[in-house]
Amino acid sequence: MPHKKRTATGVLGGLAGLVGLSAVAGILVTATVTPAIAVSGYAASSAIDVFDNMPSYLEVDELMLPTEFYRKDADGNDVLMTQFYDQNRIPVTWDEVAPVMFDAITSSEDKNYYTHGGVDLVGTASAVLGNLRGSDTRGGSSITQQYVKNVLQQACEKEAKSQEEVDACFRSTTVASGTDGIERKLQEMRYAIQLEKRYPKNEILLGYLNIAHFGGTVYGIGAAAQYYFGVPASDLTIGQAAAIAGMVQEPNTYRLDRPDSESNGAANGYELTKDRQIYVLNRMFSDGKITQEERDAAIAEPITPNIQERAQGCQLAAGAEFFCEYVRNIVLDDPAFGDSLEERQQNLRRGGMKIYTTLDPQLQDAALDAMSVVPATDDRLNLGASGVQVEVGTGRVLSMVQNRPFAPTGDDAGTVTPVNYNVRNQDGGGGHSAGSTYKVFSLVNWLEQGHSVNEVLNGRVGNKRVLTSCDGATQNVRTGNSGRANEIGNFQSSNGYSGTVKKFTEDSLNSGFLAMAERISVCSTNQVAMKMGVMQSNGEPLDVNNNPYDVLGSAAVAPIDMAQAYAAIAGGGMRCEPKVIDRAVNSAGEDITPQTSCDQAISANVAATAAFALEGVMNATGQGARIFDGVPVFGKTGIHEYEHTWMDGASTKVATVVWVGNVDGFAKLNEYRVNGWRLDQIRNAIWPKMQGAANAKFGGDRFPTPDTNLTKNVLTDLPNVVGQNVDEARGTLEAAGFAVNVAEPTDSTEPEGRIVSQDPGAGRAPGGTTVTITPSNGQGATVPPVTGNPQEAERQLRAAGFTSVTTACTEKDDSPQPTVTGTNPAAGQAVGRGTQITIEYTAKNC
User: Fold this and answer.
1) Which of 296, 426, 503, 796 is the most exposed place for a label (fewest CB within 10 A)?
2) How far apart are CA 835 and CA 844, in angstroms?
């Protein structure tokens, strides 16, 4: 058993070693500096000075440890999601190591460990003599010296950026020969002496077992026991401990995870390791650490590895691989984890960080179930689908799923992918045309500029002059349904209508939103989107090249960006950056959590009014995604050229965004069905399940009351266009914000095309009201006043151009002669010349 304390004999032995070391050091340094005069007393004295002047303080850095990602389980406990490492290491405490392991390593590597002062003089001298004969400097080192070598090697490897540099670290600290080897050995001795002064023996021994290499990527006794035999270090048997202890001399020679090896594999019973194990067992027996029966039983027992791979990488995060990759990219990007990319890469694989993520187990499971309706692949198109949920008010990402399974490199068949469809241009993909879900930014922009959602606009198809930039540049856009180039149509070929912005939002009317763009610039709408956290999928600004189609969602954007924008509306205008890490600590337990920010992107009044308008969507174009659970939600549908389909929405607690579409290519989703759903509508099979799970767990409150100034009915001046021609009247009315309906020309004495009436008349009217204007056909004549008898009256009417004249007589006793009393239509009226004019007269006898 290992000694718990140093005995008096051990202390005295250590002191004797220190006294004798000066002489040995003199010889070693002299041989290094002046081999020709090594026997000179002066040279030896000078050499002692050189040794004494060597650095003596060795900084023992934190161990290179795996970084671990954690997630919550259903009970709220932190469970390991995955890990990343260059060195597979599981640090253990003294009590977590079987005592037989300490015995095996001290007997085989340093039987005098507890009696020397850090350096075994006899072993060191033997090693130096071998070096002078031309061999390398392996062997002869105490456990403390070996610990020094490992500490130096790890410090070097921590800074290594390639396998070549790692190999160079090994050479510089382990196998240097000749003069360099002697100098290295001396420096090891110097450091070892000081370590023995600073640390107890047991602490050094445990440090050595935790840092030592045991083959491949296995470092430390905790990982070695688990990897090679599938047990914790505390449960190692004598035979297992002896096998592992024997590895430290040549770790990659004696490793047990190569069963097909001809020299040391299953076929020959791991012969090389067995021989080394027997050597260790014999040393343990000679030192009285085990009995003969224990030795013989361990020798007789074959070495039987039970290899337990310690998987790493995001493929280990079953069901949350893409979320894991997103977290990994945050770790590699955020300065909280290192000042440079190289440092962050090293910390990820060597820094022993613990990263506690935001993933919600219930919502993630529900999202995976909802996403299962979309197959991973489809022979007819390159089909993708994704869903993401963020917490309102914090930005915490609660779920992240997609239809295609994860693989770090993908495959030629496209059945798996490394591309995260939910985020920006990560690993060469991500981002999709948002379609009408992008109209939310026109809505917010409209409200921010003081307009009301109940303002009436002309949303009919036709020519619209759209503001394309913030400096007032415009462009004509034709809205219609003829399919002509550069013509924007409405869903189901609707001709549009004059209506409120709220109604346009509910019906997702393209021509209505282009009517809004006549008042608010496309540039400012794109800037609103960026203010709410949305950029192009490649990270570039949205307003680099403004065009009218931007208001309809032509730009490719990331679902996670859209989720934070919709969450901002649900959260009173407070936009929070996506957050995937709740807490992070380094290997020393110090907090290194990256900080995400929230800011008031839009005013609370604008957010409440936008939510009010978006709630109406759920009873119109969004009715297929209704949940019927009593929790208030709002949403917005979106279809871009039938190539992408979206459903974005939120409660006051959680925002959910779902996308389905072409990963590449331009297949029309409405032409395909899967699992009973037409692909352009399959969003309605996913979003309600995801948002419903969020509602069930977090609930949701009523959205705030909309602002009265942003919901008021708006009256504007209606100009008088009577007397203008049709084109003039249309231009005047449309410039004032009114829709125009031209009635059939009417009979009038005015020239043809001249407006003779309008309805409603000039005055105050709701903006966007349709005004009916009636032009003259130029065929009218004024009925003249007629008198006398009916015959004279008829002559007068025909002379005025009327071709259809008739009479109507009323008998009257005091009218001896027929006397004209009037006409129908009456005199002074303008009517068509073909209009029948009735002459009214009285006579005693008709």
Assistant:
1) 296
2) 29
Q: What is the DSSP string of 626-650?
A: ---SS---EEEEEEETTTEEEEEEE
| Cross-strand pairs, 479 | 462, 488
Q: How far apart are CA 704 and CA 570, in angstroms?
A: 9
**Which of these, 763, 779, 785, 791, lies nearest to 831 by C-alpha position?**
779
* Residue (of 440, 486, 445) closest to 463 by Cα position: 486
Q: Is residue 261 predicted with pLDDT exceeding 50?
A: yes
End-to-end CA distance of the chain: 147
Structure tokens at 561: 């960006």
**Cβ contacts of 593-599, under 8 Å, gap ≥ 24:** 593/336, 594/330, 594/334, 594/336, 594/337, 595/336, 596/395, 598/393, 598/394, 598/395, 598/574, 599/574, 599/575
| Tens of pLDDT, residues 289-325 | 999 999 999 999 999 999 999 989 999 999 999 999 9
Q: What is the mean pLDDT of residues 372-382?
A: 94
Q: Please, are residues 365 and 629 in contact by the beta-carbon 8 Å criterion?
A: no
Cβ 198 vs Cβ 137: under 8 Å: no
Which phi and psi (to 5°) does residue 346 adopt?
Answer: -65, -40
Q: Is the dihedral of CA 597, 541, 470, 717 positive or negative?
A: negative
Sign of the Cα pseudo-torsion (757, 761, 766, 767, in order)? positive
DSSP state of 96: G
Beta bridge partners of residue 71, listed in sequence order = 79
Q: Say what the alpha-carbon torsion angle 141, 142, 146, 148 is, to the nearest 10 degrees.
A: -110
427-444: pLDDT as tens digits: 555 689 999 999 999 999
CA-closest candidate to residue 138, choices 107, 174, 187, 188: 174
Q: At 10, is the pLDDT very low, low, confident or very high (cuts 50, 70, 90)?
A: very low
Structure tokens at 137: 């400097």
Q: What pLDDT digit, counting tens, does each position of 659-677 carry?
A: 999 998 899 999 999 999 9
- Report the C-alpha gap between 422 and 430 in whole angstroms: 6
pLDDT in tens, 552-610: 999 999 999 999 999 999 999 999 999 999 999 999 999 999 999 999 999 999 999 99
Comparing C-alpha atoms, which of 558, 570, 567 is closest to residue 534? 558
**How long a stretch of residues is the chain?**
846
C-alpha gyration radius of the chain: 44
User: CA angle, 660 as apex, 656 and 663 as ends, to 5°?
Assistant: 125
Peptide bond just before 751 cis, omega within 30 deg: no
**Residue 72 is encoded by which pair of tokens?**
């919550």
Residue partners of 185: CB distance under 8 A and separation at least 6: 28, 124, 127, 128, 131, 137, 141
Cβ atoms of residues 620 and 604 within 8 Å = no
pLDDT band at 138 (very low <50, low <70, confident <90, very high): very low
What is the DSSP track for 27-45?
A: HHHHHHH-GGGTT-HHHHH
Report residue 623 as tokens.
């009715």
User: What distance in Å separates the CA atoms of residue 285 and residue 798, rounded to the nearest whole number?
Assistant: 143
Distance, in Å, from the CA atom of 559 to the CA atom of 563, rounded to the nearest integer, reads 6
Q: Helix (H, G, I), strand (E, B), or coil: what is residue 846?
A: coil
Distances in whole angstroms, Cα of residue 447 to Cα of each of 549, 608, 616, 793: 20, 10, 16, 66
Which has the higher per-residue pLDDT, 92 or 19? Answer: 92
Q: Residue 650 to residues 243, 331, 560, 653: CA-CA distances in angstroms?
A: 60, 28, 13, 7
Which residues in 326-408 belong to E strands, given as ranges?
Answer: 354-357, 383-391, 397-402
What ranges make up the beta strands (E) of 364-469? 383-391, 397-402, 432-433, 456-458, 462-467
CA–CA separation, 557 and 536 (whole Å):
5
The first and second tokens of residue 263, run together, are 């020299």
Q: Which alpha helices (H) appear in 110-200, and where do they start and end?
A: 121-132, 143-158, 163-174, 178-198
Decide: helix, strand or coil at residue 475.
strand
> For residue 747, what pLDDT is reported?
86
